[in-house]
Design a protein that fits this description.
- The complex is a heterodimer.
- By secondary structure, chain A is of the alpha+beta class.
- Chain A contains 5 helices and 8 strands.
- Chain B is mostly helical.
- Chain B has one domain.
- Helix content of chain B is 84%, strand content 0%.
- Chain B contains 4 helices and no strands.
- The chains are: A alpha+beta, B mainly alpha.
């Protein structure tokens, strides 16, 4: 036992030789695994980048098409408006319906609500795991709900107009609005009475209070002029038909 | 005398680190590394028990390494994860040998302790 670390006969040399071989194999293996990891990441990110730029180009193209068609419609409407008084009335009615459907950009006074993940995030001190400190789709739904309840006439979330058929969904790591993925921070724009909106949002124990409790980053700013974009894809009605023949 | 093998390990690592191999070989090399580690730890144990033999050690090292790789290769060809068998078998052996080595060291220390403290009082 005692002479263990001393040079024994026929002990140190073969073990050192074997260690050399073992070390070489380890070096080879570690280096190869590292290269493999890097390669995989590289390959995946280039694929994703090309996918992203393709999608962006596609979106640009379609957005331009939508704009073109909308100006065309506006031109036709202008023609109809100049015709007669009755036609003007119909056009006014059409205008309101379009606002309700989210087909027209609208502007007016209102509030901006900016939400972002909790500052506790990353420190990982809190209870309930990291998911507790991320904004979830239900947080956004609650805020949207509160805005509508406070009389907001038009609401958008990260540039996506919220209309009757808008869904705010969780899709894995991202949140989707109107089937479009949106990144954080989440910015609501709401047009309506500034006072009503502010007091509804800042209600004691209300939606934002609960978010602030867990140190979510919440910023509410009243604004005199807000422009809210139209919805990207107009709703289609394939199944729902009017139940009465005439509209009153 | 632990310095020379450690130095050899580090030198081997650093010399080969700049090279790389086809990723498909990675599994075989991993199994080979495990076999080599097993032989090395087995040698330490044999040395502690006073049974170390150079021929047994060297042949065990290279033959086990080759055998492990061959088994993994055949497993691949047969569609059975035979390298798992190698990993399990070698893993158990490494743990058993480490346990023996620890036992030998602890016993040696206890004996030394007893020799120092018990003898003068009697």
């Amino acid at each position: 036992m005692h002479g263990f670390w001393q040079t024994g006969k026929g002990w140190a040399l073969p073990v050192s030789g074997v260690c050399l071989v073992l070390g070489a194999l380890l070096g080879l293996q570690v280096h190869t695994q590292q290269l493999r990891g890097e390669m995989e990441v590289g390959r995946r990110s280039t694929a994703l980048i090309s996918l992203l730029s393709n999608s962006r180009a596609q979106i640009d193209l379609q957005t331009k098409e939508i704009e073109r068609l909308r100006t065309q419609v506006a031109k036709y409407e202008k023609g109809a408006m100049s015709d007669k008084g009755a036609a003007a009335l119909v056009t006014k009615e059409l205008q309101n319906t379009r606002i309700a459907l989210g087909l027209l950009p609208v502007k007016g006074p209102g509030v901006e609500v900016e939400l972002d993940d909790s500052t506790i995030r990353g420190e990982d001190k809190g209870i309930g795991g990291p998911g507790t400190y991320l904004i979830h789709e239900f947080d956004l739904l609650q805020v949207a709900n509160e805005l509508w309840a406070a009389g907001a006439e038009a609401v958008s979330l990260n540039g996506q107009r919220l209309v009757a058929g808008s869904a705010i969904r969780c899709s894995g790591p991202l949140i989707q609005v109107n089937n479009t993925s949106i990144p954080h921070p989440f910015v609501f724009l709401a047009i309506g009475s500034k006072e009503n909106l502010l007091s509804a949002l800042n209600m004691r124990g209300g939606v934002l209070d609960q978010l602030r409790l867990v140190k979510f980053q919440v910023k509410v700013t009243p604004k005199d002029q807000i422009t809210i974009p139209p919805i990207a894809i107009a709703p289609k009605y394939s199944y729902a038909k009017p139940a009465t023949e005439e509209t009153p | 005398m632990i310095a020379l093998p450690l130095l050899a390990l580090v030198i081997g690592f650093l010399v080969v680190y700049r090279f790389s191999m086809p990723p498909a070989w990675a599994d075989y090399v991993a199994v080979a590394i495990l076999a080599g580690l097993d032989a090395l730890i087995g040698a330490v144990r044999a040395r502690l028990e006073g049974q170390f033999d150079e021929a047994v050690f060297l042949s065990g090292f290279f033959v086990n390494m080759g055998l492990a790789m061959v088994l993994a290769y055949f497993g691949d060809k047969l569609g059975v994860d035979l390298y798992l068998a190698v990993v399990v078998a070698l893993g158990i052996r490494i743990f058993t040998n480490l346990g023996r080595i620890r036992g030998l060291f602890v016993r040696a220390r206890m004996e030394a302790h007893r020799a120092r403290h018990v003898t003068p009082s009697q």
